[in-house]
């Protein structure tokens, strides 16, 4: 026969146990509120977040665990309303994405890049190079300079981040010599390939915090150190400096300069008439005697002694140096690799941006300089 149990007596908890339990409850409540209410990601999930500021907000998906379940990736929120593009980008800490398609590496290009006075912690560099022998050599030289700069003891030299992409298509020209690149018969294929490279570079690297995109060709070897803030100070959607080339004048045997980029222009009735007579796959080209467009070229608008602040409207732009508000690209303005109103690549980009409501501006007296082969 079971015996009835007597009254159960609970042992009185010590004051220390009560205090520890209360602290633990407060900690749990705080943790739940902080991780859920503010939109922040928990510490466990932050371990999965990519450290690269322009990488996707999650690390690559891992294989399923032993139980067949994969933990969900973290969710990152971006407030795009906080991204500004102003005439005073340094004061407003606006992030710059410098994009460079590169076939050859020029040390003068890199040296000039490092000398830019815009705060380097606000600059991301991104490059795209072809997968061929010349591209491999350029990639190796570029990586060596990146390692040297990013390991510098000077915080002001190191850039926020650096990205290198390799093209997944063969370049249409085997030689990158200047004479070969600029032959008229090579232009459509060459510039279509350039447009594809620019689009790949842009769409892969444009991050949610980017305010401005600076397109800078790998053979631009001399610019003012204040290039970025100078161009941004005009507060224009698309702004292009004037590209020249230094050379030894054979008539004077002295250092001189000559126009280089003919793609910054104002349209003309003659060019429009040519376009109206063209087939759907034909493109207009600038700077060739066989195709007289009679456009007004910005390269010939430069006047010694005139203000560098002078602005002119442009209908076409080149890509040697070009500052673009990131929202222009986010609106869909890209570089057509196909005839777009008989224009292609950078000139097609200017036309596409205009169709989207954005205008291009040129600075005829503000100069950058191209490498002279």
UniProtKB/TrEMBL annotation:
GO molecular function, one term: alpha-1,6-mannosyltransferase activity
Chief localization: Golgi
Region: Disordered, residue numbers: 49-77
Topology of this chain in the membrane: Single-pass type II membrane protein
Location(s), subcellular: Golgi apparatus membrane
GO CC annotation, single: mannan polymerase complex
Family named by the database record: Belongs to the ANP1/MMN9/VAN1 family.
PANTHER family with a match to the protein in the record: MANNAN POLYMERASE COMPLEXES SUBUNIT MNN9 (PTHR43083:SF6), MANNAN POLYMERASE II (PTHR43083)
Stated name of the protein: Mannan polymerase complexes mnn9 subunit
Species in which this protein is naturally found: Ophiostoma piceae (strain UAMH 11346)
Organism phylogeny: Eukaryota, Fungi, Dikarya, Ascomycota, Pezizomycotina
């Amino acid at each position: 026969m079971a015996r009835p149990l007597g009254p159960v007596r609970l042992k009185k908890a010590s004051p220390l146990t009560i205090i520890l339990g209360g602290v633990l409850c407060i900690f749990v409540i705080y943790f739940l509120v902080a991780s859920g209410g503010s939109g922040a990601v928990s510490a466990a999930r932050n371990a999965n977040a990519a450290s690269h500021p322009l990488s996707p907000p999650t690390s690559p998906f891992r294989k399923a665990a032993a139980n067949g379940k994969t933990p969900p990736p973290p969710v990152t929120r971006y407030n795009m309303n906080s991204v500004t593009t102003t005439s005073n980008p340094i004061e407003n800490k606006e992030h710059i994405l410098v994009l460079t398609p590169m076939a050859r590496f020029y040390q003068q290009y890199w040296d000039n890049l490092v000398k830019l006075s815009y705060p380097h912690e606000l600059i991301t560099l991104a490059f795209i190079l072809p997968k061929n022998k010349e591209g491999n050599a350029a990639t190796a030289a570029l990586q060596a300079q990146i390692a040297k700069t990013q390991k510098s003891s000077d915080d002001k030299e190191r850039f926020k981040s650096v990205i290198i992409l390799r093209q997944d298509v063969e370049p249409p020209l085997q030689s990158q010599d200047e004479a070969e690149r600029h032959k008229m018969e090579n232009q459509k294929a060459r510039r279509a390939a350039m447009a594809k490279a620019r689009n790949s570079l842009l769409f892969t690297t444009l991050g949610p915090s980017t305010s401005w995109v600076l397109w800078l060709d790998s053979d631009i070897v001399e610019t003012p150190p204040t290039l970025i803030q100078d161009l941004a100070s005009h507060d224009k959607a698309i702004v292009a400096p004037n590209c020249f080339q230094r050379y030894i004048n054979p008539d004077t045997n002295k250092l001189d300069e000559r126009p280089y980029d003919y793609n910054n222009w104002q349209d003309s009735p003659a060019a429009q008439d040519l376009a109206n007579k063209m087939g759907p796959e034909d493109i207009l080209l600038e700077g060739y005697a066989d195709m007289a467009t009679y456009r007004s070229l910005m390269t010939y608008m430069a006047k010694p002694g005139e203000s560098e602040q002078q602005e002119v409207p442009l209908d076409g732009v080149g890509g040697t140096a070009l500052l673009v508000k990131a929202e222009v690209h986010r609106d869909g303005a890209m570089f057509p690799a196909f005839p777009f109103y008989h224009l292609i690549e950078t000139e097609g980009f200017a036309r596409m941006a205009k169709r989207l409501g954005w205008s291009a501006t040129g600075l005829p007296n503000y100069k950058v300089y191209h490498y002279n082969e």
